[in-house]
Structure formats: C-alpha cells, structure tokens
TrEMBL record:
Residues 280-363 form the TGS domain. The gene is engD. The keyword Magnesium applies. Residues 3-258 form the OBG-type G domain. GO terms for molecular function: ATP binding; ATP hydrolysis activity; GTP binding; metal ion binding; ribosomal large subunit binding. This is Ribosome-binding ATPase YchF. Keywords: ATP-binding, Magnesium, Metal-binding, Nucleotide-binding.
C-alpha cells in the first residue's frame, strides 16, 4: 500500500537528521548547510505497536511482522519556491506525491547551525512554508481552470464538477486560507482528492528542539503547539539530534538513555503513531504459529476490503471473517480461549473492521 509522509520545512532545520533517525540509517546526508538535500530520500519504517508483540507471545508465533509506513525526506523550501526560487518547483512536485506532511520547524538555539533567516522563529518559518504551498496551489488551480474552459463550455459533466471545486479552492486560497478549509460534499470527495492540492494535505508539525528541551519542550514549541491547535493540526516535540543517537543504540541501551533524559518512549515512536493517526490509518492483526502480523487499513474499511490488503483473491472470494477483538484475545489468552468464551464473531461482507481486530479470513477461489 505504502502510505507516504513527506518531511517538509525550511533548509537546515533537521529534516534529514530526523529521516535518518526514523529509518535507522545514515542514508540521507545531514549537514550544517542549507540545501544539503536535493534528491528526495525515501525510507520505510515499522509502526510501533505493543499489541503485536503481545499477540505473538500469546500465540507463540515464530515471526513478528509490523505494519510499515513510508517517509520521504524532501529538499528545503524557501520563500519564493513556488516561483522557482531556491530549488524551486521540483520539490513541490515531491510533496504532491505524499499523503500527509510532517512539517519540521526549528525550535532549537544553536549559533553554529545556520538559520536561513538568521534567527529562530518557528511561527514565521511555518508561515513561510504554508504560504509557498498555498501559492503553488493557486498557480496550479488557475492553470487548470484555463485548461478546462472548453470542456466546461461543451457541457462535459466531469469538467463542470471540476470547475466548481477549483473555484471553491481558489476562493479559499485568495483569502489566504489553505484549501483544506473548504468543506467538500461526500459526492465530490473523490474528484477533490484527485486535484492533489498541497494545502489539502494533513499537517503534523514537528518541533525540533534542543537536547535539554526534549522532555518538556520550550517556549518555541509552546508557540507552535498553540498555532497547530488553532489550525486544527497536531504537533509533536522531538529532538532530531538525540533521536538519531538513540536510533543507533540497542533496545536496552536506548531504554536507559531515555529514562535518563526523562522520556517515556522515543520521540520517533510518538511521531510515527501521530502520522498514522493523521492519515486515518488503523491496524488489524493476523496471528498464528508462523507469524503475527499487523496490516494497515484506512478507517472505515470493510472486511472484504481488509482481506484484499493481504491478497486480491481473499477479497474476491471472501466468505466471512472470524473476528476477535484485541482486548478479548489478550485478556482471555488466545484464540481457543476466546472462542470458548463466545468472543469469536463470524462477520460478513458489510462488517467494518475495527482497530485491533484479530482476523481470520475464510474465502474460496
Ligand atoms: N535538535 C537539534 N539540535 C541541534 N542541532 C540540530 C538538531 N537537529 C538537527 N541539527 C543540526 O542541524 C544541521 C542541519 O540538519 P539537516 O541536514 O538534517 O537539515 P535539513 O533540514 O535536512 O537541511 P536541508 O534542507 O539543507 O537538506 C545539522 O548540522 C544537524 O546536526
Ligand atoms: Mg536535508
């Protein structure tokens, strides 16, 4: 499936450092100069979920296979990017291909690390990036409106719908509001998504703080938190530099390091989970002696569609899904006990899978 989260922000704010920490590699060059990254770096990460290890233990599974998510480390954007400034439009195209945005803002003071506008001001920085995304949208909306004029005149139904949506987007953008503020009717949702506007993508602000602020944040991250809340977006506080160090340690060392810092878990885990939630993703499990595995679905997915994530044949030949809620599976100590207690349900084609369901699909091919 591959849900993609783009790491976006001004140059030299710590995007590649964060990417390396997330992917536990040093595959992205991270260095103290602006525009260090040009080509996007793409990496997959495991989605941390304590339930999976627990299920594997109960069922004595030989392998554990977590859910995966993709992060893309994108080049720094600057003011004027939509007009080709900095490294320009190419990067806007990289952002277009993602499902959501992790917007990194610099919340650390460090005289040695260059800031493109010379002083730390995450609110102004975030505004610069948001504005560029909106300007890029405006340009693409205007271009598309011109391109469909003929079809609209000819009465092409799809073009008429598209024009209406493009006009709604333009009206918001012209007021300085991101396209995500437009209320879209359910019957327009598909077309709207196909417009692929940058300012409709959900945003998670990542406050990159210094080492000593990793546990409690600082006044910069407080300001970002407030701004994010006003926009209806979420935020996480992280020290990319520390996270990169932690990612190099083994589990036991990492735990000690975290507790010394006063942190309960790695910031990356919080970030990945927040990204997962932002994309409205959920997890169901398949559990057996061979493997315990987490599968990713969109909220609202039906049982046959969920089966289709494993294999198309499972969806086409779907008969029913034997379903046990995670809590029942864990509390009762496994499939047999859950079944005994009447906690295994046979669910049909219209069943909407719930986060944490342990599923066994029956199908014919
Ligand atoms: N929390 C932090 N505290 C102090 N320094 C940091 C922190 N996070 C990153 N840095 C430093 O900031 C510099 C820039 O980091 P990085 O290369 O990851 O930025 P970037 O956003 O990817 O930049 P570019 O847009 O140029 O690719 C590096 O020297 C890195 O070590
Ligand atoms: Mg970089």
């Amino acid at each position: 499936m591959g849900f993609r989260m783009g790491i976006v922000g001004l140059p030299n704010v710590g995007k590649s450092t964060l990417f390396n920490a997330l992917t536990k590699t040093a595959s992205a060059q991270a260095a103290n100069f602006p525009f260090c990254t040009i080509e996007p770096n793409v990496g997959e990460v495991n989605v941390p979920d304590a339930r999976l290890a627990n299920l594997a233990q109960i069922a004595n599974s030989a392998n554990i296979i977590p859910a995966r998510m993709t992060f893309v480390d994108i080049a720094g954007l600057v003011k004027g990017a939509s007009q080709g400034e900095g490294l320009g439009n190419q990067f806007l195209a990289n952002i277009r291909e993602t499902d959501a945005i992790a917007h990194v803002v610099r919340c650390f003071e460090d005289g040695d690390v260059v800031h493109v506008s010379d002083h730390v001001d995450p609110i102004a920085d975030a505004d610069t990036i948001d504005t560029e995304l909106m300007l890029a949208d405006m340009e693409s909306v205007e271009k598309r409106l011109q391109n469909i004029v003929r079809k609209v005149r000819g009465g092409d139904k799809e073009a008429v719908q598209q024009e209406r949506l493009l006009r709604a987007a333009l009206a918001a953008l012209e007021q300085g509001k991101p396209a995500r503020t437009v209320e879209v009717d359910p019957e327009d949702a598909k077309q709207w998504k196909m417009l692929q506007l940058l300012s409709t993508k959900p945003i998670l602000y990542v406050c990159n703080v210094g080492e000593s602020d990793a546990a409690s944040g600082n006044s910069y991250s407080d300001a970002v938190a407030k701004m994010a809340a006003e926009q209806g977006n979420s935020h996480v506080i992280i020290s990319a530099q520390i996270e990169e160090e932690i990612s190099q340690l083994d589990d036991e060392e990492a735990e000690m390091f975290l507790s010394e810092m006063g942190l309960e878990e790695a910031g990356l885990d919080r970030l990945i989970r927040a990204g997962y939630a932002l994309l409205a993703l959920e997890t169901y499990f398949t559990v057996g002696p061979k493997e315990a595995r987490a599968w990713t679905i969109k909220q609202g997915t039906t049982a046959p569609q969920a089966a289709g994530v494993i294999h198309g044949d499972f969806e086409r030949g779907f008969i029913r899904a034997e379903t046990i809620a995670y809590d029942d599976f864990a509390a009762l100590g496994g499939e047999a006990a859950a079944k005994e207690a009447g906690k295994m349900r046979a669910e049909g084609k219209s069943y909407v899978v719930q986060d944490g369901d342990v599923l066994h699909f029956l199908f014919n091919t």
